[in-house]
User: Fold this.
Amino acid sequence: MDYVSALLPPVVMAVFFVGVIRVIVKTQGGANKTKEDAAVDAALARAEGSPAGKSDA
Assistant:
């Protein structure tokens, strides 16, 4: 039974990794793409709008 306990963690991690990759691939494009693009554009606009080196102290 030592081989089962030795193989279980890599198998679980492989299944988890495949699941993560499937979610990433499925969420690319489609209806979510415009929302994600808008969120990135808004974050970039906020980052570019704030002056660098300004401190509140």
Observations:
- The CA atoms of residues 11 and 48 lie 44 Å apart.
- Helices lie at 2-26, 31-49.
- The first helix runs from residue 2 to 26.
- The radius of gyration is 21 Å.
